[in-house]
Design goal:
seven-stranded mixed beta sheet, binds flavin-adenine dinucleotide, globular, 33% helix, 15 helices, 466 residues, 22 strands, alpha/beta
Length: 466
């Protein structure tokens, strides 16, 4: 029987990062993944394929809507959807192959099969050919991720009533796409199909889309996506979803409780994700799971069984690839005897619509609720030379800083390249920068990042360009 210092279950972003860090720290490491391809949700049916389709559809949208203004005459533009999906698949398989390379390079053993605990130190692997292998692990890190959630009365048939997984591999562009849930995944995939010509309706239970993010972001995003043609039905509670062959009928109660009927050829159910632990045999190891299905852990991501850790979507916190990665690194270092730390307040959240939305730290609503005294500075993208040059004038950046110390408490961005720009805010906040620190740092001109500097200047009522 093979024995390991660390066995990691899964192969998503939490896992391969944890495995590589373990190997770097001299620990004999193995990973077990039930599918033939590595990379988990993120790489196969999440972050990467969605961004590939967002990029392809964005090119098409810009070509059809903005090329003429740029002075480019493009006639006969058409979408070859089969090729678009094929390119997305190619991006996925190249990236997944890259993880296999990293496993080899770091001398990490890879087992393909379903992992199940026999007890706290022994794991049984059931391979796709039905054969079984048992291995021994001093420490185990569980990162079995999550699966799409649904509502109790909705039957996901994967044909007309679909989740994000199917939406990433459709064989045709929907004519009318109904999206249940105005969160990140629904809006990203809604943007893809809206840009490609689908009539998209988003039904959201809460009064705002992207609930939980700063209200400025949700209002500004809704306004901009509406301009792009997406219809929004907020404060609507879906009560039934019926597949009628080539048509799906969705009924939702509006604010006043009146039923509203929606018809489409596809309905995407994007109401969140739930932790996935099926078949893991957690009970054999004695690992506790909460009522919501998450594996319970302490601040060191250690379960109630001391040699078993859990990270990523299967534990509490934001379901984000980079959160899983930070946790993978932290657990590897803890196992190796180090004392790492994650500040969860500084894990950024991003929505890859266009304009992009990105945020870190506290929202204005959270600061108000906590009674924190703060100052705020905003800067509109339309006042930025770089944004006008590229015709990306929608959006703004808001900086919230402590009223007394000026320490940056939250940054909320909507605009071109916000997903990349938020890194500057994260670094600033990691080093506990004041808004004046950022305002006094030189930002290359013309760049989108000047909007962050300007918003910091605005905290002190001294913005230059607005
Ligand atoms: C459409 C979509 C878009 C997204 N976009 C983004 C984004 O842009 N940015 C971002 O940060 N996050 C994004 N996410 C979220 C991100 O994909 C997840 O947060 C991330 O993948 C979680 O990583 P993980 O390692 O915890 O688990 P996962 O990536 O879910 O990996 C878990 C792995 O464990 C395997 N597994 C499960 N049970 C077993 C078992 N018993 N034995 C062996 N293997 C097992 C599974 O097969 C899977 O490969 C997106 C998600 C979706 C669905």
């Amino acid at each position: 029987m093979k024995t390991y210092d660390v066995v990691v279950i899964g192969s998503g972003p939490g896992v391969y990062v944890a495995a590589i860090r373990c190997a770097q720290l001299g620990l004999k490491t193995a990973i077990i993944e039930k599918y033939n391809t590595l990379g988990g949700t993120c790489l196969n049916v999440g972050c990467i394929p969605s961004k590939a389709l967002l990029d392809s559809s964005h090119h098409y949208y810009v070509a059809t809507k903005h090329f003429a203004t740029h002075g480019i005459e493009a006639t006969g533009l058409a979408v070859n959807f089969e090729q678009m999906i094929a390119r997305k698949n190619e991006v996925v398989s190249q990236t997944s192959g890259g993880i296999n390379y990293l496993m080899d390079k770091n001398k990490i053993d890879l087992f393909q099969g379903i992992a199940s605990f026999e007890n706290a130190t022994h794991i049984i692997i059931t391979k796709s050919d039905g054969s079984i292998e048992k291995i021994e692990a001093s420490k185990t890190i569980i990162a079995t991720g999550s699966k799409p959630a649904s509502l109790p009365f909705i039957k996901i048939d994967k044909k007309r009533v679909i989740t994000s997984t199917e939406a990433l591999s459709l064989t045709e562009i929907p004519k009318q796409l109904i999206i249940i849930g105005g969160g990140v995944i629904g809006l990203e995939l809604g943007s893809v199909y809206s840009r490609l010509g689908s009539e998209v309706s988003v039904i959201e239970y809460m009064p705002n889309i992207i609930p939980g993010m700063d209200e400025m972001l949700s209002k500004e995003l809704q306004r901009t996506l509406k301009k792009q043609g997406i219809k929004f039905f907020t404060s609507h509670k879906v009560t039934s979803v019926e597949n009628k062959g080539k048509e799906v009928v969705v009924i939702a109660d509006d604010k006043k409780g009146n039923p509203v009927e929606f018809k489409g050829d596809y309905t995407l159910v994007s109401v969140g994700r739930k932790p996935y632990t099926e078949g893991l045999g957690l009970q054999n190891a004695g690992v506790k799971v909460s009522d919501s299905g998450q594996i319970e852990t302490n601040a060191h991501l250690q379960t109630n069984v001391t040699n078993i850790y859990a990270i990523g979507d299967v534990v509490k916190g934001a379901m984000l690839a980079h959160k899983a990665e930070e946790e993978g690194t932290m657990v590897a270092e803890i196992i190796a005897g180090q004392k790492p730390h994650i500040d969860y307040n500084l894990i950024p959240g991003v929505v890859y619509t266009w304009p992009e939305v990105a945020a870190v730290g506290k929202t204005e609503e959270q600061l108000k609720e906590a009674g924190t005294k703060y100052k705020s500075g905003t800067f509109a993208m339309r006042a930025l030379g770089r944004a006008r040059a590229s015709m990306d004038i929608d959006g703004q950046i808001k900086v919230l800083a402590d009223a007394e110390t000026d320490e940056i408490l939250g940054v909320h961005m909507i605009g071109a390249r916000a997903a990349d720009m938020i890194a500057e805010a994260v670094i600033a906040m990691e080093f506990r920068a004041s808004s004046e620190d950022v305002a006094r740092s030189s930002h290359a001109h013309p760049t989108y990042t000047e909007a962050f500097k300007e918003a910091c200047l605005a905290v002190h009522d001294r913005s230059i360009h607005s």
